[in-house]
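tokens incoming
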């Protein structure tokens, strides 16, 4: 399964790299990965699904799988908790 469409761009590969996979409750994300190098040297890219390990979920605010409970996944958008001390 891929993010929106199977194809991602060089910009997405070089700059964005990772995106939350919608509909997975933050347990999966997509990585823009090289697919093929054509004869003219052009590289094509695609969104590859990656799963977070047990007890973790994808925290899009920092771009990694993070401990469940360290952030809130709402509407497929990871929101980091802000801890304040008084």
């Amino acid at each position: 399964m891929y993010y929106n469409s199977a194809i991602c761009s060089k910009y997405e590969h070089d700059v964005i790299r990772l995106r939350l996979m919608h509909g997975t409750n933050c347990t999966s994300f997509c990585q823009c990965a090289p697919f093929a190098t054509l004869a003219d040297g052009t590289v094509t890219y695609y969104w590859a699904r990656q799963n977070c390990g047990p007890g973790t979920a994808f925290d899009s605010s920092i771009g990694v799988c993070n401990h469940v409970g360290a952030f809130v996944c709402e509407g497929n958008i990871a929101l980091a908790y802000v801890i304040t001390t008084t």
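note: Helices lie at 10-16.
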